[in-house]
Structures are given as C-alpha cells and as structure tokens.
Amino acid sequence: MTEYSLHSELKDWYMVSGDDLEVTVEDFRVDILRGKLLIEIQTVNFSAIRKKLIRLLVNNQVRLVYPIAKLKWIVHTTGSGEFVRRRKSPKKGKVIDLFYELIHAPSLVKDRNFSLEVLLIEEEEVRCSDGEGSWRRKGVSVKDRKLLNVFDRIVFRDSRDFLEFLPKELQGHFTNKVLALKLGISIKLAQKITYCLRKMGAISVVGKKRSELMFQVS
Questions:
Q1: Can you name the CATH fold of 162-218?
Q2: pLDDT of residue 218
Q3: Could you give the 3-state DSSP secondary structure of residue 208?
Q4: What b/e string do you get for 142-168 counting C-beta neighbours within 10 Å, with b at 16 or more?
Q5: Rounded Cα–Cα distance for residues 99 and 77 (Å)
Q6: Cα–Cα distance between 178 and 60 in angstroms, integer?
Q7: What pLDDT is stored for residue 135 in this prediction?
Q8: Please, are residues 178 and 184 in contact by the beta-carbon 8 Å criterion?
Q9: Which residues touch 195 (CB under 8 Å, ≥6 apart)?
C-alpha cells in the first residue's frame, strides 16, 4: 500500500514532547508511544490493521487515529509532475463517515484498552491522468495526500460515546429506514451504523417490522 505524505505529516502534528516515534512493541512497529499509550494513525483501511490492534490490545492501551477530510483540494498534474490545476472537492467529510471504515473492526470498541480519535482535516490530494488509477476515477491515480490543517478532534472511548450518533428524538424502537431519515443519510450508511453499534454492544435487535430489523439502545 502506498504511504502518502499525509501519514507522516499527521504523526508530526500529533506528537508532543516526550513521545517516541516508530517504536517496536511486541514485534509490531507502532507510530507513536506516549507513556503507556500506543498510538496508531490509519488514513484508510481498518481491516488492514485489525489483527495488529487485537494483538496489541491484550497488554496495552491503544488509540487508533483516523483523519476525515472536512475540506479537500484536488491538484491535477501531468505525468512528469507539472501542475495543471487546483480545485475544491464538492465532498465535505463528516465524523459520521468513520463508519465506512469502522464496519471492518467494530468489536474493537468493546475492549477497555481501545480508543478511537477522529481528526477533521483539510487535505490536498494530488492526482495524475496516467491511466494507472482505478476504473472509478477513469484511470486517474492518486500520487499523494497532504495535510493542510486540522479543524477538530473527537475521541471515542467506549460504546456509549458512539450513541451520540443517534438523534435525540429517536425514541424506543427504530429501523434503518427511520435512522436514515432522521439523520439525512443513505440507508446503506444507516445499516453500517447499526451494524457497528450492534457489534460493540450499544444497541440490540428487538424484532422485525415487516422485513426490517428493529433496534433499541441496549
């Protein structure tokens, strides 16, 4: 997997005096060691780091740091790296977007040694029309991701913290369709949220309404 500038720049931004970088703990390379806390920065793909975290959580406190681009700039370059144009992406990331990745490792939240920190950032993504990128981007490849600013940071320490994503007016039993409507999100994202909340023990299934699962806060 390509290591973009964003990862190292986030380490530099996150570290404080007394931290140790790139420390080996139990045969694993850890981004930051802060006292007894192990800090891992993951910019994509929670599934790739899940097994590592499970092993480290047995004997250590671990914090997973995940950035979400609240504001993104797209820079297009030529194959030789020459600047073509720069534009603002219409997509604006929100904290709730973390469920697109958390769905790959929701059970980690049940471990008392685990915490998750979301950073809302401004980033710059460098792209090149070289035909080597994914079909979704019509062959345009991402050459780098860069950190420009950090707007906010939110820490989740246990499953109760994730209940903040449920709207206050949601009373009693609810379905994915109701949750999607209340939050103004797609049903697919609502399904990811309820799946994660179930796996971390924050909500439970109490029955069905026609073909839809019904949930309530545990």
A1: Arc Repressor Mutant, subunit A (1.10.10)
A2: 84
A3: strand
A4: ebbbebeebeeeeebebbeebeebbee
A5: 32
A6: 39
A7: 67
A8: no
A9: 103, 106
57-95 confidence digits (pLDDT tens): 999 999 999 999 999 999 999 888 889 999 999 999 999
Q: Look-up: residue for tokens 């839809």?
A: 212
Beta bridge partners of 43: none
Give the whole-angstrom CA distance, residue 114 versus residue 52: 13
Phi, psi dihedrals of residue 33, rounded to the nearest 5°: -115, 120
Within the chain, all domains assigned CATH 1.10.10.10 are found at: 162-218
> Using CA atoms, how far apart are residues 122 and 46, in angstroms rounded to an integer?
21
pTM, full prediction = 0.92
Q: Which residues contact 79 (CB under 8 A, 6 or more apart)?
A: 128, 129, 130
